[in-house]
Write a structure and sequence with these properties.
The structure holds three protein chains of three kinds.
Chain A lengths: L2 H21 L3 H30 L8 H32 L13
Chain B lengths: L1 H16 L5 H24 L5 H4 E7 L4 E6 L2 H20 L8 H20 L3 H22 L4 H28 L8 H5 L5 H18 L8 H8 L2 H23 L4 H27 L4 H20 L4 H32 L10 H4 L1 H14 L7 H13 L7 H27 L15 H19 L2 H18 L2 H5 L1
Antiparallel strand pairs in B: 1-2
Helix pairs in contact in B: 1-2, 1-5, 2-4, 2-5, 4-5, 4-11, 4-14, 4-19, 4-20, 5-6, 5-11, 6-7, 6-11, 7-9, 7-10, 9-11, 9-12, 10-11, 10-13, 11-13, 11-14, 12-13, 12-18, 13-14, 13-17, 13-18, 14-16, 14-17, 14-19, 14-20, 16-18, 16-19, 17-18
Chain C lengths: L9 H15 L6 H29 L2 E11 L2 E9 L1 H24 L5 H23 L3 H19 L6 H32 L4 H9 L5 H18 L8 H4 L5 H10 L4 H8 L1 H5 L2 H23 L4 H21 L3 H28 L17 H15 L5 H16 L1 H26 L7 H6 L5 H16 L15 H6 L13 H26 L9 H7 L4 H48 L6 H22 L2
Antiparallel strand pairs in C: 1-2
Helix pairs in contact in C: 1-2, 1-4, 2-3, 2-4, 3-4, 3-10, 3-15, 3-20, 4-5, 5-6, 6-8, 8-11, 8-13, 10-15, 11-15, 13-14, 13-18, 14-15, 14-17, 14-18, 15-16, 15-17, 15-20, 16-18, 16-20, 17-18, 17-22, 18-22
Classes of the chains: A mainly alpha, B mainly alpha, C mainly alpha.
Chain lengths: 109, 492, 630
């Protein structure tokens, strides 16, 4: 399958994620949108990795594996982020009984 | 070894002082520590005089960056370390009767500042120099902000930000030179051999010069100084004006002239003009001061301006004059501060117009002060005369500027003006009749008398035999001038 | 073998020891002991000076080298003393007159407390030390050390009674005006160093005679030295400190402000006569300034009522005469006049001190009169002093003044005319002073009249000795026309001051000049006798009032120098320093503060806006990168 499809798909996912983050106020949905963007990147990384591997496997058996390595990185970071982020959301909910991020502006003060 | 000890002794004793909870113990310990440092310096000047291995020390520090812990006690360093080491016992003695809150912290910070200044005077590695420069600054900040006068917070903030700004510029300058050294090293020899174009030299010159000019301070970078001197506790002011501002003058000689000789030559006239204007400016302002501390502060600006002008005249006479004057001015100004401190403690005021007639009540103080004040105006046979004579002579005979005669005459005006404000101060404070405030004045106590007598002794001794100081300064001066001599370069 | 004169360092060292003992032990020494130490050291120095003088007379001068004071690169300034004809003569004057004045002071200052008494003597000893350094130094730097040292002692002694702020102001004024001159002196030294890298007299003068200096250099150096001399020797424009300096105790006025310190400028120029002889422009200026000062001061002295002020202006005037002599090339005449002036002016000052002592501190001649009856010795000696200064043969003043007038005549008849006129004024005001205070009837209070008495021996003895010297002191310089070989001084000083074979005047002209001045002086004295024999004080008007107020020179200086500087200081302090320089520094801080307050508004706390900004900036970066890559 040509690489283009993967690119378009991940672009679409990423754009959805951005729009979601920008427009929604519910912290959980924003959170999910961020995950969506991360996964869009993951998808792209894997796709490119595979492409490179196919092109260069003759000379280098592990060519393109860096991309997949990074995916793992991102997944680990995302997992950490989820644990911290969800904890923040829980605390937010405890304080203001809502998960609307606009209530976070009181952190300014 | 001596050089290392000079840093270690105040550093270790300083940290130890933090743990002495008893004020009296802390004070005695601090005096002991400062005398120990003095003993080390004297050992260095006598026993180890000709033993190079004894005077220097080197150890690995940050080998990745090619920076090493290299310290060396050369001629100019000896002068300033001696000043630093002599100043501390005198200050401790003179302020023996002053009680500070949390005295152990006070003395600890004082000793740490001494260690920092020793580091500045000894460092032969740019990074170590920068490190020591900051190490000296930070205790001073705490000393002023914790034990200072009413407006201390605002004033010390200004002082700190101002000097710190200078330090950062200097750091940029150091890193810039570092990146152009042949071996990518911070050692001073490498700095002296850095390959800089003329344009790059000018950038480095201004980056570093501003830092040093703020520290000294010379006009127009001086406004932190009168405020800080006024608000700091007097013991701190003594160290600040007696020793610390000499760091700036010292750094000009060690880290500026030899590193960027061409830029120093090109900007010499501008810097000298600034210094000379500053001298007259500060002297005129000093005439109008009613606060003793501010008067001494402005007088100090005038004297430091002369040193800067002399250094940029780049000849043997002026540079050696500036070197010995660093020492002598430090001693003299501490003497003046001691008297200010005594007056302030006794009468609770520093306003000249509120005082008068002290000579009747406190003759010993009056005599000692008059001698110190005469040294401050560089009367012959006091220690300041040879220095000022050589500096003026150097400025007059400078080969690097065509305005040397003009500079000499203008700078010379400050000789007259200094007599005006100094004698007026003596007249208003010590002569005349006593008033309500001073009617019950008492003479100085024994510890102050000893401190001032030591100062007067130094004043007279080096006034009659300045050659012993000049001998110390001679080699370094020749070395620096050789490095700074750009005339053959320019002729090419 | 070492020259015996190597030990001349004891001459200044003795007064220094006296200074240290009296200064450090002022709380422990009795007055008697202080007097003995103070005067004894000077007497010993005087004895040594005689010994040195005799040696020099036999065997010529000698430079005694001790140690290197400053040695930097090629410049070496040794600490060395030079005793030759000129300095040994000055040594005699300084220690001799100095000793008499020390002796006089033991009685004059007797009412002071012991500690202050010792302080006084320590200052006096320090002064003699500095003055000796000044004349013995073998290079300009050592001379400068002494030069500033005597200025310091003058400052200390003028302000000796430090409770009086007026006196202290006078002391400050003296020091500061001297400093102006000192600055010029210093620059002259630097100029010499810049050409020769040495300051030793011998080397400088040798170089000068070998034409190592250009004409400009010579003129500049001599001019600067002369400016230095105008400060120390109270010439226009720096003379106003000297009359104010009379605030000091009278013996101080006699020693410092008449006999020795103020002649330092003359010594300096006489010492460097080689340089001056090669700088005709400076010479003319010296002569003109000297003449102008002599005239100006003499006119002021006509109308002063303070006995010491009259003498002070007379001193300024006589110093002007000495500069006139220097300027016309008659160096020996100047030195000669220094010597005779030291005798008769010290005598007059000490005599006035005796009068003031008798009057209980009153110095106003309007309150005196008829003192001749009660103060016999003072009266006679004062009269001798007046005759000597007026210049009547064979008193000492006649010979020295005649030599000066002669050299002025050779230079130009106009100079001679003005100088003669000044000399006549001198005779007039001195005898005005004399008649008003000593003849007529007593005009003071009853209490003062009761108090009148002759002074003790310690005060009258110096008066008598000085009176004798004032009479016979002139015989060392009898003009050649009167007695061949009579001018011993010129012959004695010839190694230092070469005799110039200038155009001589004929013997008859010389006699005529002498006769003219003597005759006119006598006329002036008689005129003074008629006018002031029965003096009664009245208000001055017109020119007399201007003279009484000293031509308003002090007020003029106050208005054009002191006040503007003071205002400038205030302006710099209040406006420039606070608003401009510090304002700039604080302005930077304020600008940063303001900027961050504005930037803070971006930090709204809305998560959405942050994210939007993030996205927008990312897009911006991408766009930029897209367009800029190439």
């Amino acid at each position: 399958m040509p690489i283009n499809y993967y690119i378009f798909l991940s672009l679409a996912l990423f754009a959805i994620g951005i729009v979601g983050v920008l427009t929604r106020r519910n912290a959980i949905i924003i959170f999910m949108c961020i995950e969506l963007m991360l996964n869009a990147v993951n998808l792209l990384l894997v796709a490119f990795s595979k492409m490179h591997h196919l092109q260069l496997s003759g000379s280098n058996a592990v060519a393109g594996s860096e991309g997949q390595l990074f995916v793992f990185f991102i997944m680990v970071v995302a997992a950490a982020e989820v644990s911290v982020g969800l904890a923040i959301i829980v605390m937010l909910y405890r304080n203001v009984h809502s998960v609307d991020v606009n209530f976070l502006n009181r952190l300014k003060h | 070894m001596i050089a290392l000890l000079l840093i270690l002794v105040p550093l270790v004793t300083g940290f130890a002082t933090f743990f002495l909870k008893n004020d009296r113990t802390a004070r005695a310990w601090a005096l002991f520590a400062s005398v120990a440092t003095l003993a080390v310096v004297i050992t260095g000047l006598t026993i180890c005089k000709n033993d190079a291995s004894c005077l220097s020390y080197s150890a690995n520090w940050m080998s990745l960056l090619n920076s090493s812990f290299t310290v060396k006690l050369d001629g100019m360093g000896q002068l300033l370390c001696l000043l630093n080491a002599v100043a501390y016992p005198i200050v401790m003695l003179a302020t023996w009767k002053t009680s500070y809150k949390k005295a152990h912290n006070f003395y600890a910070l004082m000793l740490l500042a001494q260690a920092g200044m020793m580091g500045v005077f000894l460092a032969m590695d740019a990074l170590l120099f920068y490190f020591a420069w900051e190490l000296a600054l930070i205790p001073m900040y705490f000393l002023c902000s914790q034990w200072g006068g009413e407006k201390r917070i605002a004033v010390t903030f200004k002082f700190f930000v101002y000097t710190f700004l200078g330090s950062l510029l200097m750091l940029i300058g150091i890193l810039f030179v570092y990146s152009h050294t042949p071996l990518q090293s911070f050692s001073i020899e490498q700095f002296y051999n850095a390959k800089l174009t003329v344009g790059e030299e000018q950038i480095v010159f201004w980056l570093m010069f501003v830092a040093f000019a703020i520290k000294m301070p010379i006009f127009p970078f001086h406004t932190w100084q009168p405020d800080t001197y006024e608000q700091s506790p007097t013991a701190t002011t003594m160290i600040l004006s007696g020793v610390m501002v000499k760091m700036g003058v010292f750094a000009l000689l060690r880290w500026l002239l030899p590193v960027v000789p061409i830029a120093a030559f090109q900007w010499g006239d501008v810097v000298t003009s600034m210094a000379v204007i500053g001298m007259i400016y500060a002297s005129l302002i000093a005439i109008r001061q009613d606060d003793l501390k501010r008067l001494v502060a402005y007088s100090s600006i005038a004297h430091i301006g002369l040193m800067a002008a002399a250094i940029f005249s780049e000849n043997n006479s002026s540079v050696q004059g500036a070197m010995i004057q660093m020492f002598n001015h430090g001693i003299n100004i501490i003497g003046l501060w001691i008297v200010v401190e005594i007056i302030e403690r006794q009468f609770g005021t520093r306003k000249i117009s509120d005082l008068g007639g002290l000579a009747q009540k406190a003759p010993a103080m009056a005599i000692l002060l008059v001698i110190v004040a005469l040294a401050n105006i560089a009367l012959p046979l006091t220690n300041a005369f040879p220095g000022e004579f050589l500096m003026f002579n150097g400025i007059f005979n400078s080969g690097v500027t065509q305005y040397s005669k003009l500079f000499t005459v203008l700078a010379g005006l400050s000789i007259i003006l200094s007599a005006v404000y100094t004698l007026n101060m003596i007249r208003k404070v010590f002569y005349g009749n006593t008033n309500e405030l001073t009617a019950s004045a008492v003479d100085i106590s024994l510890n102050e008398k000893i401190a001032l007598a030591i100062i007067v002794g130094i004043i007279c001794w080096f006034g009659i035999c300045p050659q012993s100081l000049l001998n110390l300064a001679n080699d370094t001066s020749n070395f620096i001038l050789e490095k700074a001599n750009v005339l053959p370069l320019l002729k090419k | 073998m070492e020259n015996v004169l190597q030990i001349v360092y004891w001459i200044p060292l003795l007064p220094l020891i006296g200074f240290l003992i009296n200064g450090l032990g002022r709380n422990y020494l009795s007055k008697g002991l202080t007097s003995i130490i103070g005067s004894g050291t000077i007497l010993a120095a005087f004895a040594m000076s005689i010994w040195v003088f005799l040696h020099v007379k036999e065997g010529g001068g000698y430079v005694a080298h001790y140690f290197d004071f400053i040695s930097v690169g090629k410049l070496v300034i040794p600490f060395e003393f030079k005793v030759d004809e000129l300095s040994s003569l000055f040594l005699l004057i300084i220690t001799g007159v100095g000793f008499l004045i020390h002796l006089y002071s033991t009685a004059y200052m007797h009412e002071e407390k012991p500690a202050h008494f010792a302080r006084y003597f320590s200052y006096l000893n320090l002064f003699v030390f500095s003055m000796l350094l000044l004349v013995m130094g073998a290079n300009f730097v050592i001379m400068f050390i002494g030069w500033e040292g005597v200025g310091l002692c003058s400052y200390l002694l003028i302000g000796y009674w430090f409770k009086n702020q007026e006196y202290n102001k006078a002391a400050n004024k003296a020091f500061i005006m001297n400093r102006i001159g000192d600055l010029a002196f210093l620059i002259a030294i630097f100029w010499i160093i810049s050409k020769l890298n040495t300051v030793s007299y011998d080397e400088v003068f040798t170089a000068a005679s070998l034409a190592k200096f250009s004409a400009t250099d010579l003129t500049a150096i001599t001019l600067l030295l002369f400016v230095g001399a105008t400060g120390k020797s109270a010439q226009i424009p720096l003379y106003t400190w000297l009359p104010d300096a009379m605030a000091g105790p009278t013996p101080v006025s006699a020693l410092i402000h008449a006999a020795t310190m103020v002649t330092a400028g003359i010594y300096m120029i006489a010492r460097s006569n080689l340089l001056y002889s090669m700088a005709p422009f400076t010479m003319n200026l010296v002569a003109i300034i000297g003449l102008a000062t002599a005239l100006l001061a003499a006119t002021i002295a006509m109308k002063q009522n303070d006995i010491k002020k009259v003498l002070a202006y007379s001193t300024v005037s006589q110093l002007g005469f000495m500069f006139l002599a220097l300027g016309t090339g008659a160096y020996v005449a100047a030195v000669f006049h220094v010597m005779t002036h030291a005798f008769f002016k010290a005598l007059l000052f000490l005599g006035s001190g005796s009068v003031i002592h008798a009057m209980g501190g009153d110095q106003d001649i309007r309150n005196m009169g008829g003192l001749s009856g009660k103060l016999k010795i003072t009266f006679i000696t004062f009269l001798i002093g007046c005759i000597a200064i007026a210049g009547i043969p064979p008193f000492s003043g006649f010979f020295s003044k005649d030599a000066i007038l002669l050299s002025a005549y050779i230079k130009s008849p106009i100079f001679y005319g003005i100088a003669l006129f000044t000399a006549l004024l001198t005779a007039f005001y001195m005898f005005r002073l004399f008649f008003v205070s000593f003849t007529g009837t007593f005009r003071g209070t009853e209490e003062q009249k009761h108090h009148l008495h002759e002074s003790p021996w310690a005060m009258t003895l110096p008066l008598i000795i000085l009176a004798v010297l004032s009479i016979i002191g002139g015989f060392v310089g009898v003009p050649e026309v009167i007695s061949h070989g009579g001018d011993k001084l010129t012959a004695f000083l010839s190694p230092v001051i070469p005799v110039h074979e200038g155009h001589e005047v004929s013997a008859s002209t010389e006699y005529m000049l002498m006769g003219l001045s003597t005759g006119l002086v006598l006329v002036m004295i008689i005129a003074a006798w008629f006018i002031y024999r029965k003096y009664s004080a009245k208000e001055n008007t017109g020119l007399a009032k201007v003279l009484e107020h000293k031509w308003y020179v002090d007020e003029f200086y106050e208005a054009i120098i002191v006040k503007p500087l003071h205002k400038l200081g205030g302006f710099l302090n209040n406006v420039i320093e606070r608003s401009v320089v510090d304002g700039l520094v604080n302005g930077v801080g304020k600008a940063v503060n303001y900027g961050s307050r504005q930037l803070r508004l971006l930090q709204s706390g809305q998560v959405g806006s942050y994210v939007l900004l993030m996205v927008l900036s990312m897009v911006l970066i991408f766009v930029l990168q897209f367009f800029l890559r190439k």
